[in-house]
Amino acid sequence: MIYGSIEAGGTKFVCAVGSDKLEIIERIHFPTTTPKETMEQVISFFSKYKVSLKSLGVGSFGPIDIQKKSKTYGYITSTPKIAWKNFDFIGELKKYFDIPIYWTTDVNAACYGEYVAGNGVGLSSVVYYTIGTGVGGGALQDGRFIEGFSHPEMGHMRILKHKQDLFGGNCSFHHDCLEGLASGTALEKRTGIKGQELDKSHPAWEIEAFYIAQCAYNTTLLFSPDRIIFGGGVMKQAHLVEKVREIFTDLLQEYVQIPAIDTYIVTPKLGDNAGTIGCLALAKEATS
Amino acid sequence: MIYGSIEAGGTKFVCAVGSDKLEIIERIHFPTTTPKETMEQVISFFSKYKVSLKSLGVGSFGPIDIQKKSKTYGYITSTPKIAWKNFDFIGELKKYFDIPIYWTTDVNAACYGEYVAGNGVGLSSVVYYTIGTGVGGGALQDGRFIEGFSHPEMGHMRILKHKQDLFGGNCSFHHDCLEGLASGTALEKRTGIKGQELDKSHPAWEIEAFYIAQCAYNTTLLFSPDRIIFGGGVMKQAHLVEKVREIFTDLLQEYVQIPAIDTYIVTPKLGDNAGTIGCLALAKEATS
């Protein structure tokens, strides 16, 4: 038996099948275009494995409807990506695959991946953020996602502007929320240079770290998690996490006694595989 | 059999005994002075009931150590109230009462009270804040407190200053965090008038509501709870919650579909009894 993983990101989809031990057997990716075109590729990939596919784990960009009693459970809801708004993701999959499907956000899936096989192993409470094209976050406590009327949308928390930041923010809902100021897109708009090409001495990194540190600060005060993991494209700049730790420590003023800072604020152990591993593990979860 | 409740607030202690049905049988309160003097009153009150007292629930001001494996479990830790710093609260109680004791923060206890007998009944996820002398918050999901390396310290989240607010904030750790700007103490320092004497047309209420609305906003984005309950002395101004709802709605920009606003942001059903009822319920919990 094998498990299927669908990481439905706003920019690209990653589909994979994996073993009971969460080993990836095959994986493909393709850009997120229209629902029709994109879902055709999803269906086509998994159709090859239809006989042995036991379940699917889906981590989707959002907001999504996760309320099982809701009429629109399994839908992508109020996304700014117009073509995907109110798209019945799970309904579409169910037309082709009559198997259990776990449905959650892309960041929750990555959080789960790190929780079961990465930097969250053995801990009780973990919060995961992705700082990429957008910013999103997910949290787990004792193996359960933090949620209520819906899943969290942590990327849109409010933060203070850096005094030297002249960029107004680019969140279409809130302008200068965390995502509006700290996403890879915001970083590029602020400097005119892509993050991966931005020299590590560039002052924009100080601004970026200030925003992520505030995110870590609020996360600490609201969840007191055992660990905060920052993933996503922007965090691939190895110098950034150290800057974040420094500013965070300064903000906290030792008000609470956190675990050792180098083990408290970290990047993902699984790197880009966190989402895939997480979706596979959630697919397994869906069968239990 | 009866249960005991100790609400250990920074300003006053409330001790009570109650029935299996969480009915309050007797309750007393006295100011928080030195640990010696205050604890003598606590011990004296419960000694009357020693024969029938089955367990105790304690909700304490903090930060406190809730890690059962820690050497300082049951202690008040880094509080700015010097006399109580590193005070072994549970150790002191255990000298006199060899019964199960539930140990948590004052706000967690109040949150639990509302969860089991107030405005949280029947919901999965509830966050409770007290806006009083200080600001604190606690959260429950499916009956379990949100926690990790420690309990949350939500009152110290960072928020944006109101443009018309000239007060610098009075948190001794972070100056202008939520507590530093929105506590009853801050409100009085800003205006020179006690909150309960401040006319509802005073512009300070708009500033106060702006801060509490940001708190509700961040709470929504990080937890997506089913309900947020704002208690504490400052919230007794009935006009305030309506202002908070208005500003919160404006901040959210309908990014996520919250429950109906009048049921989403509310004041405590149990009023000042939330903490006592919560501690009694937690005392019961400690025996199971």
From TrEMBL, chains A, B:
GO molecular function, one term: metal ion binding
Catalytic activity: D-fructose + ATP = D-fructose 6-phosphate + ADP + H(+)
A Pfam family reported for this protein in Swiss-Prot or TrEMBL: ROK
Protein name per UniProt: Fructokinase
Keyword Cytoplasm attributed: no
Organism: Enterococcus phoeniculicola ATCC BAA-412
Enzyme Commission no: 2.7.1.4
Family, similarity comment: Belongs to the ROK (NagC/XylR) family.
Cofactor: Mg(2+)
Cross-referenced InterPro entries: ATPase_NBD, Carb_Metab_Reg_Kinase/Isom, ROK, ROK_cs, ScrK
Alphabetic keyword roster: ATP-binding, Carbohydrate metabolism, Kinase, Magnesium, Metal-binding, Nucleotide-binding, Transferase, Zinc
Matching PROSITE patterns: ROK
